């Protein structure tokens, strides 16, 4: 299947999810499919909830890269995949799945996708969303408390113990892998319009090839 994979990376709370969602809003789910890196956290049924709360979820080893790579290759070859669903309230995968259909444009978004060469090698365009640290932590606090059922203390503790050091060790250096760096992600209208134009070009190319 003639399609492209756009990787959108950046720190937690940077605006990468907003950017990915705006692409879907612009073109529709028939034209753009999304894979969420967070949904590929490894399953941990073998340990207790308390033990799961202490795991480092901001290290590349926290993700099932093998399964994600397989799903990307399947979508690129025209096959649908069953993307896992992660439940943030219990720090584990749920038993649910979301079917992701192949499309002309596939978007993969996540904090650490550029830290894995296996994933980078599958991408056609790599976009890094660059946002100030103070903005990212404020967005993370609001999101985790309001949407994920976390306490303020737990969000701050996690940020200081794993999020910040792992960002400095893995996320920030991975910016060098990017083809395009976008300040503020989906909130940067000029950069968003440029990315939309690139996607439109791909869709026109895909439509001509299918005739």
The proportion of residues in beta strands is 15-25%
Distance between the termini: 14 Å
Q: In terms of structural class, how would the helical and strand content be classed?
A: alpha/beta
The CATH superfamily turns out to be: P-loop containing nucleotide triphosphate hydrolases
Number of helices: 7
Helix and strand run: EHEHHEEEHEHHEH
Q: Count the E strands.
A: 7
Largest sheet descriptor? 5 strands, parallel
Number of domains: 1
What is Rg? 17 Å
> Per the principal axes of the C-alpha atoms, what is the gross shape?
globular
| CATH architecture annotation name | 3-Layer(aba) Sandwich
Low-pLDDT residue intervals, each spanning 5 or more residues = none
Oligomer: single chain
Percentage of helical residues? 40-55%
CATH topology-level name: Rossmann fold
Would you give an account of this structure?
With 211 residues, the protein is an alpha/beta fold. It has one domain (4-209): Rossmann fold (3-Layer(aba) Sandwich). The protein contains seven helices and seven strands; from the N terminus they run βαβααβββαβααβα. It has helices at 16-27, 49-53, 65-76, 117-120, 133-147, 152-174, 189-209; strands spanning 4-10, 32-36, 81-87, 92-100, 105-110, 125-130, 180-183. The protein has a five-stranded parallel β-sheet with strand order 2-5-1-6-7, with helices on both faces. A hairpin with a 4-residue loop joins strand 3 and strand 4 (92-100). Helix 5 (133-147) packs across helix 6 (152-174). The mean pLDDT is 89.
In short, what is this structure?
Helices cover 44% and strands 21% of the residues.
């Amino acid at each position: 299947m003639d399609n492209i994979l756009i990787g959108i990376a950046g720190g937690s709370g940077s605006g990468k999810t907003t950017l990915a969602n705006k692409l879907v809003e612009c073109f529709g789910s028939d034209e753009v499919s999304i894979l969420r890196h967070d949904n590929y956290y490894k399953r941990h049924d073998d340990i207790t909830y308390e033990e799961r709360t202490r795991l480092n979820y901001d290290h590349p080893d926290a993700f099932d890269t093998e399964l994600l790579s397989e799903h990307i290759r399947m979508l690129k070859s025209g096959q649908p995949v069953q993307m896992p669903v992660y439940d943030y309230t219990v720090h584990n995968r749920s038993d649910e799945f979301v079917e992701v259909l192949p499309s002309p444009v596939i978007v993969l978004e996540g904090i650490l996708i550029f830290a894995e060469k296996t994933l980078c090698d599958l991408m056609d365009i790599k976009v890094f969303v660059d946002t100030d640290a103070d903005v990212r932590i404020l967005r993370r606090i609001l999101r985790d408390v309001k949407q994920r059922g976390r306490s303020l203390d737990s969000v701050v503790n996690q940020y200081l113990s794993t999020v910040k050091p792992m960002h400095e060790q893995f996320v920030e250096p991975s910016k060098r892998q990017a083809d395009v760096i976008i300040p503020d992600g989906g909130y940067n209208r000029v950069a968003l319009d440029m990315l939309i134009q690139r996607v439109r070009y791909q869709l026109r190319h895909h439509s001509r090839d299918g005739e």
